[in-house]
Amino acid sequence: MFSLRDKKLAKEIVSKIKKLDVNLKFMHVCGTHQDTLVKHGLDVLLRDCGIEIGQGPGCPVCVTTPKEIEEMLLLARSGKTVASFGDMINVPGEKQSLQSMKTEGYDVRTVYGIEDAVNLATEHKDKDVVFMAVGFETTAPTTASVLLKNPPSNFSILCCHRTVPNALKAILDMGEVKLHGLIEPGHVSTIIGTKPYEFISKEYHIPQVVAGFEPIDLLMGTWMLVQQIEHGEACVQNEYTRVVHEQGNVKALKTLEKVFEPGDIKWRGFPVIKESSLELRSSFEEYDARKKHENELKSLKNKEFSEPEGCRCGELLRGLVSPSECPLFGQACTPSTPVGPCMVSVEGSCNIEYRYFKK
Asked: What are the structural domains of the chain?
């Protein structure tokens, strides 16, 4: 909500942008930013100012590939106890979701965090428990800290963690969309700081601003991008100074380094993005579900999976289309009957658009 002070500042920002008569396209990579934009009507307000802000690959559930979902489905079918977050469990696979498997009697658990999955393994020593670890740099330190505490031997993770900066590089390299600026995610930046984004501004001359999640944060971040463009500058600015620091969370970063190493991985809607995954180091391979349950998963090793027919989630994640441009949106695809993950996750652009009745 806007305070009286923020309302005054917001009007001032809007007035200044309108006077510049701009025509700009920005991208953010955060589901919470998208929620703020749509919920408070900032998307419409800024379009009236000549600025379009689209959502990129900022939804962890959405960027998880069909193959990773099929891996969890196969582990459930093979008798494992599988656990993940509620959104992830509801994402459709090729023929069914983890949620539909649960209704068939398979041991699928909805958890609020990795600690809940570890507790399951501790309480049920006779069961192999696999946690689907999704998320960006924000949630990965929790996964790392748990593995450093030597969880029980019947526990493992299907690691699907990804990192943001190189995904942005991939979007720019693909050249499908002309971007004038990037609004970087506050939560991720709390962990990694601002330095990992600097190469983008240097190599691609793209202005960037790390922004918070209040409406005034996004308006201020937008204004800061406009100012960089007006002055012919391209750097990383930090609007979210009350939380984000240049060096990030040093302790969390050290924890990540102990457990993970960078790897190459596909994202939904993208080809393989180099060094955009967090893979378990060899010293933690006893907790790597892909190695621990290699025999159960071998049938998927060389298999490829495509998007559901008609689903445009991949294009949404690359910033090429909006939810309303998908023919399934609000018709065949709704939160109660989702076709793709962007309608499942509360951080997905389709789910957000549907919730605020902007069909």
From this structure: 61-163+250-300 (3.40.50.11740)
